[in-house]
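INFO  loader      accepted 1 record
INFO  loader      residues=100
INFO  predictor   begin
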Amino acid sequence: MIKRVMACILILFLAVIAVGGCSEFFGTIAGRLAANKHAIDYIHEKYNIPIERLDASIPSYRYGMRQYLTEIRDSKDGTVYSVLVRMWGEGDVMDIEEIR
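INFO  predictor   done
INFO  writer      dumping tokens
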């Protein structure tokens, strides 16, 4: 019985470590959502496009630079904007730039 409990605790511990390691290399869900929100706000302010017309793709995370790369699409005319969002933590923007 004790072996089973120890095995379950070990498996749970390893699962927590694996999930934490994956979020370190691939970004977190909250970070991806925040990156999309900030990128949409950036395109909205820069080009004066209504937020309702902007859609975001699933961002990719660049581990070495701690940046999220996301594409924002204007649903009316089909224009695609590629935006890099670098954040301090889970949602605090440090730098946003558009890639052409």
